[in-house]
Amino acid sequence: MTLALAELKGQAVLDLVTDSPAVVIACDSVLEFRGQIFGKPKDAAQARDRWRKMRGSGGVLHTGHFVAARTNDTWRISKRVANTVVRFADLSDAEIDAYIETGEPLFVAGAFTIDGLGGPFIIRIDGDPHNVVGISLPLVRQMLLDLEIPWHTLWKRKDSAGAARRLIVWPLLASQRQPAHLFARRERTVPAFPGEGHRAVGEPCDFIAERGHEFA
């Protein structure tokens, strides 16, 4: 399911990309817990109910990855899934209620983060920690290699012909409602979404840029 959703997101962005070369990376995550699939909770009550079930236990965070690389106006695509086992602390009701009140659990798969306020509630992981954030960087590196794009070449500001390089990435945001902004490596200059001050979850680069910003 995560792979199918990641592909839908990525395919939607491909039509918006006019630059070449370009890379599009789309991800989607869910938590598998006791045979159930937990995406983003629909409201605070559901987030609270899930945490009361998850505390002192664990689950598997699955993230589907869709990577598309465009060169010479041709797209090449790679699709894979990363899985990480997550173990939760045995939270008190007061801790759960306080966490829900922050609003953070409402915007993320499984109703938790490892890189935000929920970090202290994760006592152990087995697998890639980046995957829990929302994107497995080691997996993306390998997927790019499969597409004949070495990871370190993304650090270059210009290619061998002097053309500007861009990294176009579906935003791994706390709320994935639209491809409004894209990642690149600079300081943050815009909010996650217009009118929303909620922070991004899982920033593989240093910045959330507006569509088409040059990767520097």
Q: How would you explain this protein's 3D organization?
A:
By secondary structure, the protein is an alpha+beta fold. It has helices spanning 2-14, 44-54, 93-102, 129-133, 137-146; strands spanning 22-33, 36-38, 58-71, 74-88, 122-126, 168-169, 181-184, 207-210. The protein has one domain: Maf protein. The protein is built from 5 helices and 8 strands. The strands form 2 sheets. Strands 1, 2, 3, 4, 5 and 6 form a 6-stranded mixed sheet that branches. A two-stranded antiparallel sheet has the order 7-8. Strand 3 and strand 4 form a beta hairpin. Mean pLDDT is 77; it is low at 168-216.
> What does the overall shape look like?
elongated
Number of helices: 5
Identify low-pLDDT runs: 168-216
Strand pairing plus helix content: what structural class?
A: alpha+beta
What percent of the residues sit in helical stretches (DSSP H or I)?
10-25%
Summarize the structure in short.
The chain is an alpha+beta fold and 216 residues long. The protein has a single domain, classed as Maf protein (Alpha-Beta Complex). It has helices at residues 2-14, 44-54, 93-102, 129-133, 137-146, and strands at 22-33, 36-38, 58-71, 74-88, 122-126, 168-169, 181-184, 207-210.
